[in-house]
Amino acid sequence: MIHKRRLWLARLNRGIVFALLLLAAVQPSAVPAAQKQAVDTFALNAKLGRGVNIIGYDPIWNSKDKARFKESYFRMLKDAGFSAVRINLHPFRHMDKDNDYALRSSWWEVLDWAVKNALQSDLIVILDMHEFGAMGNDPEGNKQRFLAFWRQVSERFKDAPDNVLFEILNEPSRKLSPETWNQYFREALAIIRKTNPTRTVIIGPANYNSIGSLNELNLPKDDRNIILTVHYYSPMDFTHQGAAWANRKDKTGVEWKGTDEEKAAVERDFAKAQAWAKEHNRPVFLGEFGVYDKAQMESRVRYLKFVTRAAEKSGWSWAYWQFDSDFILYDIGKEEWVGPVRDALLQK
């Protein structure tokens, strides 16, 4: 009797193993995330290359019928010479507070559409949690929503290819102090690592991803699947001239002439970030930079050429802010590139 029972169990176990192997053969994505091998983040960062920030403020999130960004734009970006898109996500307004902050199906539909089309166009995808305003104003009050977002996103994309990256939070700032930010991103990272142990995650310093705050950033030394991000808009009087939200509505006509002094200021800032990255052995992603379109085009072009080439000389990847709207790269109304900006970025 005991012998028969053992024989039955052995056959059952062999059947289970066979079924699992068959499932893995026909559905490679079903292989547990824990079995995936770690990615060389420096090599991935090199592939990340030249990117663009997209659809953060597009009406598509409220209704696909009102979308400005078209499906064809993914291939257009790739054909132009860009290699990545940083998808700016504002999920809080699309979460159901009474249902454990579950994200609504209409929001998932848009995100799935964007990720699918970007990958099909051979673009690397960064899922950028862009709720920096709410998190900066009330970190504690929004913490549950913040962590709930990463629980859902990390679960949904746990079997996505390695060229889908997670960026924990854009520009932590204001009440989200450097000390608090170090705590919050580690909690989010722990959630991500449960289902995405080798997923490349992008993390930057507090104070709006400022280079000057790098020394206050405390990345976990034992997690090597992290890319450092910084943002760069210096000098603000030039890059944000005419911008009401930056208290510069009436400050226009500021030039960037590309003098030795102006270039040296950029190089000093980048050298600080490069030194930190080298000390901590982290690749660098310049996640945002750009010039508001109230500036003279000649100055915009000079600045963008210098900043992008300086970043690339340092071995950094980058993403321009932004495709549409202000800081404009592509004019959707005219269905044409802002040629001088595109050419400055891509060195054409």
Strand content: 5-15%
- Any idea what the shape is? globular
Radius of gyration: 22 Å
What is the CATH architecture annotation? Answer: Alpha-Beta Barrel
Which terms would index this structure?
12 strands, 348 residues, TIM Barrel, 8-stranded parallel β-barrel, disordered N terminus, alpha/beta, 44% helix, two-stranded antiparallel sheet
What would you note in describing this structure?
This protein has a single domain (41-346), classed as Alpha-Beta Barrel (TIM Barrel), CATH 3.20.20.80. α11 (297-313) runs parallel beside α12. The chain has twelve helices and twelve strands. The termini are far apart. It has helices at 2-26, 41-48, 72-80, 105-120, 132-137, 139-156, 178-195, 206-209, 236-239, 260-280, 297-313, 339-346; strands at residues 50-54, 84-89, 95-96, 102-103, 124-129, 164-167, 201-203, 226-232, 284-289, 317-320, 330-331, 336-337. It is 44% helix and 14% strand. Strands 1-2-5-6-7-8-9-10 form an eight-stranded parallel β-barrel, surrounded by four helices. Strands 3-4 form a two-stranded antiparallel sheet. The radius of gyration is 22 Å and the shape is globular. A hairpin with a 5-residue loop joins β3 and β4 (102-103). It has 348 residues and is α/β, with parallel strands linked by helices.
